[in-house]
Amino acid sequence: MIDEIFSQSGNRILKIGSNYLCSRMDPRKEARVWVDAQKITGSFNEGIIIFGAGAGYHLVELRRRFPLLNWVVFESQMRSYRFVQQLFPLELFEIPIFSPDDLPLGLSHSVVSKILSGQFRIIIHSSSYQLNPDWYDKLKSYLLGRSYEGLQRHFHLRKGFAEMKVLCLSDNREDHPSWKIFDRMQTSELAHLLDRDYFLVKALRELIR
Amino acid sequence: MKILVISALRAGDVLLSLPMLMSLKKNIPEGKIHLLVNQEASGLAPLLPFVEWHFIERRELQAGLGEYEVPFFNSFHQLGRLVDQLNGESFDLLINVTQTRFSAWLTSAIKGSHKVGLTIDRNNLCRYGSPWFRYLNDYVAEGGQSPFHLSDIFSYGAGFPPVHDFQLNAAPEGELEILPHLNLLEKPTVLIQALTSDSKKNWDFNRWAEALRDIRLLNPQINLVLLGAPFERESLKTLASMCEDLGVAVSLVTCSFSGAFSLLKRAQLLISGDTSIKHLASIASCPTIELSMGSSHFYKTGVYRPNNIIVQSALACAPCSHSNPCRFAFPAPDQSPISPPCGDEISPELVATLVTQMLRGDASLNLKELAEEFRSEVLIYQTQFSPSGYWWPQPLFSQSVEEVLARSLEKSTWKMFLNRDHFQLVAQYGTEVRNILLAVKSASFANSTKDLMTWLIDLEKAEQCSIREMESLQALSRRLNSRDQAKAILKGLIAGLKNQINQDENERLVLSHFLAWDSEDKVKFEMPELRHIQDKMKEIKDKHQIRLKLIRTMQCEQQGWI
């Protein structure tokens, strides 16, 4: 059951089943606290992926505080997705928000590619996450490069790595790839790496021996 | 000129590179020195304001590599940003003083016109940029006997003799930190750094408590202060209460490196295990008694100032390997750790007596008596700089002239070899021999078995034999290029080297290579490896030749011809 109701502060909010997607008291205040807690620096090389559009207040606050931030949103609930689009058409204009319906499009989106090719982090909006944790977990594994398919995508986005093939180290495809995969690679595969990247890979591999 | 020094281990290792940093500062006054260290060593930054610091977030990098919740490439980007930032500095010289593969790859990733210290290229070949760093890798890391001090190796490796006498100012934050403890320093103060980073290097708390009781009995006028890092506070409280049980009042101060340095500047003495604090003490010119236990290898990392005392167990296993647990320390029935036997050899009374002698000032004569008295349990050394310029722990127990001469001869040979003095048109053999003889004069002697000249003649003969033997082994090794009769040639080389093994420490390393080949029944030799061994054999022969020239110069000196 989905309800659109008003908070005590007079803001429109969303309830899916028994879960409120934001504060019943003051969602804007809650959004400010949420953004503070994420310790976002807003630096040009910081990419952010948000899991959960919720009722959209935290996204609006994020945009207000960091207008130049490179970020993208994934939302598993179509109702929440539509609610946010309708409530904040201007505030969230051109912010890429993807639902399960347009996931393939989302994963290949240029903003997602740009974020994945640099240093980034995933921030979870707990109320949204609890509504479909399995969907988010699978997506997270892919986006972090902690699944074989996800890691291959990460390789494709990086110069010199694109030629490498991510081989599963065990029979169990559920295992997560680790930095040990570089040990299995042929010299010819690593040869495509620039000197800097080659030495960085070698140095980092030493840190987990 | 911009110089980047990479020291990617602990704070103590960073401090070991300080004589080199001071030498760079002295010899390249226009140079700008940058230091790349692990974040854990950042506490040293206030003490070295003349250096520009960069930090490796090692723990964060490791977490990023292994933790599922962190993007696979995050650590790659994080380290990449650091490398890009350093490359933006356009360094003229990179000096890697860390002998690890991580630091070697990292140094390879950073651009620099000239690099010294371990780097690895894309063909997996190690490069050193200086014979001294090669010595560090091939000889010191392989467990070579009586190696040079790491501070000396770093300095000579960077191309300059180390600076022995330098002062650092206390940092303002350190001075502020010790303000509440200044009342402690109104009386003569002995600082005690009881904990080290490795339990094998720790002296048992019961022994510490007994030693502090004896020190207090012998020196009622002094303050005893337990020193430690904030995270050591709880452990040190246990020691303080053990002291109280014995009726000894001790104070406890936990502080940062800057605070510790300010305290050391004011203290009369430090008693310490193998810690970074002992290196700080040497910089603060605070006299130190170092209790060297477990894997603490004082030849490499002893207190780098003259006239300090090092005590080490006389047990044959000391110092032991860094990575393995003590073979003889079994857990007690209640599973509490038991201190290794090398610590048990050091008696609390001895430490208390040493402290008393040190507090009385120059008491080397009495210290020699003590060293003789306790010779069967511990070996006591006094640190000094040899006339040749390197750091040296001078045994306070008596030795024969031959022992002292042989040791000085070996060191001088290494130094001339590593500085490539023998390639000079006129090498300084005469100067070096005078330095050796000066070193001999400062040692204490047991009765000599034969006269010096006879001994030198015997040595000369042995060196001549070794050179001939080495030449024939070199000729034999060249035939290993072909597979024909490889097995027989290998056997001949092994037998030849076994005969030679006591003549030069490096021979042990070459022999181990051959033995590995022999045990694996290899008849196919990898060319780079073979070339490496042939280079090593040439090095051994060069060293024999330097040693021979030094011996002959010494003979001339003895006969009054120089």
Topology:
The complex is a heterodimer of chains A (209) and B (562).
Chain A: E1 2-6, E2 12-16, E3 19-20, H1 27-37, E4 47-51, H2 57-65, E5 70-74, H3 78-87, E6 97-98, H4 103-107, H5 110-116, E7 120-124, H6 126-129, H7 133-143, H8 148-156, H9 181-184, H10 187-190, H11 195-207
Chain B: E1 2-7, H1 11-16, H2 18-27, E2 32-38, E3 52-56, H3 58-66, H4 74-87, E4 91-96, H5 101-109, E5 112-117, E6 119-120, E7 126-127, H6 131-140, H7 150-158, H8 172-177, E8 189-193, H9 205-218, E9 223-228, H10 233-245, E10 251-254, H11 257-266, E11 269-272, H12 276-283, E12 288-292, H13 298-301, E13 309-313, H14 341-344, H15 348-359, H16 364-373, E14 378-385, E15 391-395, H17 401-418, H18 429-441, H19 452-478, H20 486-500, H21 505-519, H22 527-558
Parallel strand pairs in B: 1-2, 1-4, 2-3, 4-5, 8-9, 8-11, 9-10, 11-12, 12-13
Antiparallel strand pairs in B: 6-7, 13-14, 14-15
Which tags fit this structure?
heterodimer; A: 209 residues; alpha/beta; 4-stranded parallel beta sheet; 3-stranded antiparallel beta sheet; 7 strands; elongated; B: 562 residues; 8-stranded mixed beta sheet; 5-stranded parallel beta sheet; 22 helices; 15 strands
